[in-house]
Write a structure and sequence with these properties.
two-stranded antiparallel sheet; globular; Four Helix Bundle (Hemerythrin (Met), subunit A); 4% strand; 2 strands; mainly alpha; 65% helix
Length: 156
């Protein structure tokens, strides 16, 4: 596996570990909190973060819209423990798959069902950005909407 993939996967793992630390400061009742009526609740955002690695892996391998709809329809986490477990399982799936790619496969162009084309390596960078983006959203929601500062370092 390329050194670049190892580094990107390490950064994704750091983001997910700090997300898990944020989860540890929450209670299941917090999952229903919705800072803006037309936006995701804390639980919906956490569920989204928990599936990013798996969903975006499927996309990076060229999954169709129908395949993604089927994947999303099968997701339902009941509580904070389920969400934390999914963070780990889905990250491990991403890592396991990316560790198997050859340099040629990492440079292969993959087009998403909505028409965006990136190399598999670029999709990995997109996953990294996606995880950090939503972790930042979660932190902001908790701190500014609910006054619950988890007091964790978001970056090493």
């Amino acid at each position: 596996m390329s050194t670049y993939c190892k580094s990107a996967l390490n950064q994704i793992e750091i983001a997910l570990k700090t997300t898990a630390k944020i989860i540890d400061t929450l209670e299941d009742a917090d999952l229903q909190k919705r800072p803006s009526y037309n936006k995701r609740s804390i639980g919906e955002l956490l569920e989204h973060i928990a599936i990013i690695c798996k969903a975006d892996l499927l996309i990076s391998n060229g999954a169709t819209q129908e395949e993604m709809n089927e994947f999303y329809s099968g997701i339902s986490y009941k509580d904070l423990k389920d969400i934390k477990d999914a963070l780990v399982v889905n990250y491990n799936s991403l890592k396991e798959n990316y560790m198997k790619f050859t340099e040629t496969e990492l440079q292969e162009n993959i087009t998403s069902y909505w028409g965006v084309t990136y190399t598999r390596y670029e999709w990995l960078l997109e996953i990294l950005a996606h995880v950090y983006h939503h972790r930042g959203q979660l932190h902001t929601m908790i701190v500014h909407s609910y006054g619950k500062d988890p007091n964790i370092l978001l970056f090493e």
